[in-house]
Amino acid sequence: MELNPQQISAVRYMDGPLLVLAGAGSGKTRVITAKIAHLLREGGLAPEQIFAVTFTNRAAREMSERVAASAGRPGRSVSVSTFHRLGLRILKENPAAAGLRPGFSIFDTADAESLLRELLRMHWGGAVDAAALRDAGRAALSMISNWKNALLTPDQAAANARSTLDRTHAAVYRDYQNHLLVSNAVDFDDLLLHPARALQQSSERRALWQARLRYLLVDEYQDTNGAQYELIRLLTGERGAFTVVGDDDQSIYAWRGARPDNLVTLARDYPSLTVVKLEQNYRSRSSILKSANALISHNPHLFAKRLWSERGPGDPVRIVTVADDEGEADRIASEIVQQRARLRARWGEFAVVYRSNHQARGLELRLQALRVPYRLSGGNSFFDRSEVRDALAYFRLLVNPTDDGALLRVINVPRRQLGAATLSGLQRLAGRRGSSLLDAIDSSDLAVELGGSAARRLLAFRDWLAHWRGRLDRPAPALRDLLADCGYENWLAGESRDSDQARLRWSNVELLLAAIERRSLTGEEPAEILRSLALDDALDRDEDEADPDEVQLLTLHAAKGLEFAHVWLMGFEEGLLPHRNCVSDEQVAEERRLAYVGLTRAMETLTLTLTRQRRFRGETRRTEPSRFLAELPADQVVWEGRDDEPEERREARARASLDALKNLLD
DNA sequence: GGGGTTCAAGTTTTT
DNA sequence: CTTGAACCCC
């Protein structure tokens, strides 16, 4: 497809830093891929010198495919990754700069929280109730995450602390970093923080990376946080050889430390910054675009922007009220079945988006009942399953013996008579020696501290692990045998409700083992496999099902950057969208941007659904329409099923829809 | 230390 | 309706 004049100037401009303000559906991915092709052809750059970063794995995958398609074979070696993967790559090259050793682990959010709970428990000295501790762990992680994203050290955090709570958090931040180092581990934020620091501190590193990375493209720039911004600056240096593409109206990650004002900061830090605006929308019918524009006009803006479309009016946006959540799932599933037949569309052209993952549950059941193939993105991911986490923890412990998070997870799973008393003794010992838990087992005081029998069991566990560590050259079989040897499968079966569940859970372990085996066969080192898995959102699927035809079920967050012919946005209700936790104007504004992201995913048709009542925590409650509904332009929408709809019309429509469905199923 | 029962609280979004 | 934590007894 042809590029418009603004897109062309964004693609061709290579003389300095460039900011592309790209409205929804304005072809920004096309600009990025075309620019990569241009840099290869006209810019005299080799594919290895071009780096593109995104925020989500999904976006990276998508972009990588498009780059490969548009640039041909050289596109393959263009580096397309998430910020975190790029950070990992930098860190891996020189772990010592961050005080790490080569086999370091990545702690995920659950690992980080459980470590923080331990630290807080020690900080408060003993008796704290578990619920309070859990909340405090969360709060501490979010605070620490904010500090890290702003590149603040524990010292700086302590110096800025105003309240007692801040001081506690700052002290815990220090402990937390120390424990991570003892464990030879990093958390997600460290994958940005450590590389940024390393590049700040070493001009040689900087020079090395700046020579290697000749051009940087950043997608969804409005979602960058302080650490990511610093990384961009350090990696591109004086040259400012970058193109960043963003849209302040689609900033939906403030809760994760994103700073949409980085759009403004960029103009301040780079006086030579060139700005290109993309305002023509190629995606949506104008009914959809006008609705989205009207909605977002209720928000404050960093940049003025007028999105327009030549795609013709299309059908009005439908706002469908249904009785309850079951009715909603039912309605969406059957409409998808009907529309697909009527429009001769593929399943893959339909998407259902929602605010939170649990909303997909009822819909899944309906889709299954109607035999509709679907793909659920995110949600309770594979890696959140406890059996997967257990197996991974064993693997981590083999690769990185100092990984305390992993040790605590599996030392008594299955049971080895190593309970709370033994563990707190071991932690005391480790604390005194400043060592990891496993190393503390080597302490000469072990038997004195814990008694002879507990000490014997700990030593046996240590030796048992060491034995399996010796077989790491074939990690998947080693892990399989390890799990068999300790009776994990039987234990898992005992933990499961019934034999079906037991089979399912063991099959998840098998899936993990298969994934490890696959990667191991391509020559990946065990430590690298683990880190890569930690950053994955799902297991890599077989290559041969590259283009499965499935209805997409996504959260609003996961939907960003994607487009679909026909979109349903579920649960347009107060409490869901905006979410009940969002009270401040700023939070509501972010929810509005989320809704905006949802609306602008649709190309041809858009349906918003809401219920009159919904099951919530076991009881049925009346719901209220989202405040955002009133912000949509009345002349672009049509209401169905609202209370004031004439009874006979509602019945007639219900009948027609039922008939249509019957015809299809016959 | 382990295992069972009872009871309460409650997930927003992702790396 | 779930999940996890407290509690009690072995």
Which labels suit this protein?
Rossmann fold; 4 domains; alpha/beta; 19 strands; DNA-binding; 666 residues; Arc Repressor Mutant, subunit A; six-stranded parallel beta sheet
Could you characterize the architecture of this molecule?
The protein is of the alpha/beta class and 666 residues long. It has 4 domains: 5-91 and 193-278, P-loop containing nucleotide triphosphate hydrolases (Rossmann fold, 3-Layer(aba) Sandwich), CATH 3.40.50.300; 105-183, Arc Repressor Mutant, subunit A (Orthogonal Bundle); 292-379 and 545-665, P-loop containing nucleotide triphosphate hydrolases (Rossmann fold, 3-Layer(aba) Sandwich), CATH 3.40.50; 383-540, PCRA, domain 4 (Orthogonal Bundle), CATH 1.10.486. 52% of the residues lie in helices and 13% in strands. The protein is built from 28 helices and 19 strands. Helix 9 (190-201) packs across helix 10 (203-212). The protein is globular and about 80 Å long. The structure holds a DNA duplex (15 and 10 nucleotides).
User: Quick one: CATH superfamily of the largest domain?
Assistant: P-loop containing nucleotide triphosphate hydrolases
Overall CATH class of the largest domain: Alpha Beta
| N-to-C span | 41 Å
**What is the number of strand segments?**
19
Low-pLDDT regions: none
Q: Remind me, CATH topology of the largest domain? A: Rossmann fold
CATH architecture of the largest domain: 3-Layer(aba) Sandwich
Q: Largest sheet, if any?
A: 7 strands, parallel
Shape: globular
Structural class: alpha/beta
Average pLDDT confidence is 88
Number of helices: 28
Backbone CA Rg: 27 Å
Helicity level: 40-55%
Q: What oligomeric state best describes the polypeptide chains here?
A: single chain
